[in-house]
Amino acid sequence: MTKHIARVLAAVLLSIWAYGAHAGDVIRSFNADILVREDGVLDVTETIKVNADGTDIQHGIFRDFPQYVTTPDGTRYKVSFEILSVTRNGEDEPWEATDTGLGTKIRIGDQLQLVSTGNHIYQIRYLTDRQIIFGDASDRLRWNVTGDEWSFPILSASAHVILSSGAQPFEPIAFTGSRGSKLADAIATVSGRGATFETTHALDPFEGLTIMVQLPKGAVAPPTTAQLSDWWWRDNLGWVVLIYGFAAVFAYMVFTWLWFGRDPKAGTIVPRWDLPMGISPALMSYIFDGTLGDEGKTALTATVLDLAVKGYVVLDGLDHLVTIRRTDLPISDGLPAGHIAILDMLHAHEGEMSLAALHEDDIEAVLLNFKIGVEAENDGRFYRQNKILFHLGIIISGAAAFAWLVAIDLNETAMKLVFFSSLAPLFLNAGIWTLLKSRRNPYSWMKRLLNFLGLAILAGMWVFGALLFCAMLYEDTGMNIAFQALLVVWGGVTFNQIFLVLIGSTTRAGAKIRDHITGLRLYLTLGEMDRMNIRDAPELSPAHFETLLPSAIALGIEKPWRAAFKAHLISGQSLTGPSYAPSWFVGDDDDAISGLSRFAESVAASLHSGADDRNSSAGSGGGGGGGGGW
């Protein structure tokens, strides 16, 4: 008895010393009365006595309560949390509870009013379940009384556990210090049907009191089947919604692709040196790739060159500021809509247009009118993008993602991270797909190596971005929700991008044209000897070269075709020297073929930025958490 009195007296003296040693706001005492009901629900009343000097505690205090418990075997589950009352100095006090992803933050006080300096007594009463760990011989309550995230010291902390059944708890243990500490600077005793715990040393900021006590079997009723079912849904609702949502999205995409997205079977591919009848170079690119890549700039470049070869325009300056001039040749009836769109733009500029001098709005108008013209050429005859089906897939995916968000109830910070992080896989997947498509083109070994390195870098960025997303979200939600979010955001975006590629389909007529284009690509990329060995292949004359050159540009294989023609000229098989002067080109370039090597880059650079851009100026167990002042 004397020893007990001495320890209490020492605790009081230490508290007095700590109170004088710590300047600023301080918790004078933190007491928790924990009533363990027979149904396993804890009725907790926390009495927090503070001394406020206005440093941190200005409007009041806040209390963080974790709602996820991790058992020693690694099992993680969610507990309930219901606030019954909040008072200050015996009077009801305004409070607001917000979800933090991992728990609930209770902000006590009025933002428009300041708390007077001096002593105040806050009292919070709440209910929580699933805090009892059931065992074979006995049950156990492990409870982090104060939490270990308070930003100012706690001079003394205590807890009193009472069993409503009248049974007596046993083997009380207390721990003090920071999270994971095994220090036991506290007194733990059993008296009647309760257990009492008191610290013997002041707690520094970010230190707390954790208690553990054994409960006799029968003092708390084990969970019923209905409770277990309710808890299972509470723990797994996010996964249930995610799995069924993904299944719905996947089923829609698969069945839609089977019915509408599969291309007809490819025919026999043989080298072709003739152009598909009535198919413009831009439409070839559209049929072959299912879209006009790089916003249609390459296809527009090919079309400008095709207009020049056909005599409708003359090009001045192939290697820097490309100027297009209209000739007197009248427009024929069968000219494709994409070609007419460019000629109409030339007419609006009085027959002469320098792409590099165009304003940004004019460039957008040129590209828009051109793409509309190519779409009109296709008109669903050769390729169907099935945009309605794709947009419906987006709606289904969005509905599944929204249902998941409702099921897990993310906080505002995590919600913003989920939304904004979706841009990362969107752009990374687009880059990966672009590099994968470009592998079809005949590259030198150096360019193949660079292509592979580019894919490796983007894939590494994808993995790193996904892990970073999980790590950032883990801070607010825990690994379970973070992994679900990874599947929803990165997986969902990737699924829909793959679906966008797959849902577009070639018609039967388009499949024949596609086989023809594949054969033409094969011919344009063959070596000189292989091309000469093709039966009935035409001579590689300037006229033949010019006829196929716009299509080679549209298909992204103009370099091997241009190199083959230059090698043919040098060999002297069609001309006495390597000179070549097309009638549709006006300029001072002695080597028009070298000028052509820069033509596509020049047009793309001119379309990339208009004149306006260049000239403008510009602790394990239940309980826990922490708190602070605000």
Brief descriptors of the model:
3 domains; signal; Immunoglobulin-like; transmembrane; plasmid; 25 strands; alpha+beta; 17 helices; eight-stranded mixed sheet; 630 residues; five-stranded mixed sheet; single chain; DUF2207; membrane
Report on this structure.
- With 630 residues, the chain is of the alpha+beta class.
- The chain has three domains: 2-227, Immunoglobulin-like (Sandwich); 237-261 and 387-503, no CATH class; 281-386 and 505-607.
- The protein contains 17 helices and 25 strands.
- The strands form six sheets. It has an eight-stranded mixed beta sheet.
- It starts with a helix and ends with a strand.
- This is DUF2207 domain-containing protein.
- Residues 27-167 form the DUF2207 domain.
- Residues 274-436, 449-565 form the Predicted membrane protein YciQ-like C-terminal domain.
- It comes from Sulfitobacter pontiacus.
- Name of the CATH homologous superfamily of the largest domain: tricorn interacting facor f3 domain
- As laid out across the biggest beta sheet, the strand order is 7-6-10-2-1-13-16-15
In DSSP terms (H or I, runs of 4 or more residues), the helix count works out at 17
User: What helical percentage do the residues reach?
Assistant: 40-55%
Unreliable stretches covering 5 or more consecutive residues? 10-22, 573-577, 611-619
What is the strand content? 15-25%
Return the CATH class of the largest domain: Mainly Beta
Domain DUF2207: 27-167
Biased composition (Gly residues): 619-630
Region (Disordered): 609-630
Transmembrane segments: 237-260, 388-408, 414-436, 448-474, 480-504
